[in-house]
Design a protein that fits this description.
By secondary structure, this protein is α/β, with parallel strands linked by helices. The protein has helices spanning 42-54, 82-99, 112-121, 138-144, 169-190, 209-217, 237-242, 258-270, 281-297, and strands spanning 5-8, 13-16, 21-27, 59-63, 105-108, 125-128, 148-152, 197-200, 229-231, 273-278. It has a single domain, classed as TIM Barrel (Alpha-Beta Barrel).
Length: 298
């Protein structure tokens, strides 16, 4: 129940669908919801990145601006400008590639300037959480430099996410499907081949708590868009809210959500995800092997 397809990156090609690929997260930020400040120091970030690779991550996603709820990401005056973002990001990117020149690195950015700089250094993929909606120049940069791209569905901007109206299940799926279709059309119109594109439903990005479960349960309905899916569920806040009865009625702290993350990740794989974005590589790799065996037996 997932797409077998080629994903073409800047300098190489990956064959997706036969097994789950694991993408490790490296947040070079002081304020990310999951591990803000832990890896802001470039040496700590590089050490963490190499550890993720050693534990089995197939590729890494480096981000230097938090897109947590209520952040100013994507606005006219983002909290982190392109210059600061690059100052955090580029030294880490360069250092990883010096040590592991064959590492497949994705950069989590919606800014065209940052994407151009990262691709010039050696990044293979641009992961745009806005699906080419926050910076109109980004799509052209990705087309020019022939990058692999990950296009996410995002409903509004981070400061609006907590106040979005609740949608009925069919309306929610239609919104996500139609939004991803628009991003695909934007990519095609600027000259990005479909083979370069991965799609991300955007869990937590403008979806109310319960809506994420609807989207997860019906994720396979996005497969007719024709491109492989990436699922980023690791440590998301809706998981913490679901666990609240086990934590005295309060949302489970971020550091206690790993088991819940693996459960959600497994569901995503069984519902069509080809790549999963995670904070801990080894447990994800083990869970993915089991999910892959289930798919192979079905």
């Amino acid at each position: 129940m997932r797409i077998t397809a080629t994903w073409r990156l800047r300098t190489r090609t990956l064959e997706l669908g036969r097994r789950t690929w694991v993408m490790g997260v490296v947040n070079i930020t002081p304020d990310s919801f999951s591990d803000g400040g832990f890896f802001l120091d470039s040496k700590a970030a590089v050490t963490h990145a190499l550890q993720l690779l050693d534990e089995g991550a197939d590729l890494l996603d480096l981000g230097a601006e938090s897109t947590r709820p209520d952040s100013r990401a994507g606005g006219e005056t983002p909290a982190v400008g392109a210059e600061e973002e690059q100052a955090r990001l580029l030294p880490v990117l360069e250092a990883i590639l010096r040590t592991r020149p064959d590492a497949i690195l994705s950069v989590d950015t919606y800014k065209a300037e940052t994407a151009r700089a990262a691709l010039a250094i050696g990044a293979e993929v641009i992961n745009d959480v806005s699906g080419f909606t926050w910076d109109p120049a980004l799509a052209a940069v990705c087309a020019e430099l022939q990058a692999g791209v990950i296009l996410s569905h995002t409903r509004g901007r981070p400061e609006q996410w907590r106040t979005q109206p609740q949608l009925a299940p069919d309306a929610l799926l239609a919104m996500v499907r139609d939004g991803l279709a628009v991003s695909l059309s934007t990519a095609a119109a600027i000259g990005i081949p479909a083979e370069n594109v991965l799609l991300d439903p955007g869990y937590g990005f403008g979806k109310r708590l319960g809506e994420n479960y609807t989207l997860l349960a019906r994720q396979s309905e996005l497969l007719p868009l024709g491109r492989p899916l990436l699922a980023g569920l690791s440590r998301k806040s809706f998981l913490g809210h679901t666990l609240a009865p086990l934590f005295g009625g309060k949302p489970a702290p971020v550091e206690t959500r790993e088991t819940a993350s693996l459960a959600a990740m497994t569901a995503a794989i069984l519902n069509g995800a080809s790549i999963v974005r995670v904070h801990e590589a080894r447990p994800a790799l083990e869970a993915a092997r089991i999910a892959d065996a289930i798919l192979a037996a079905s």
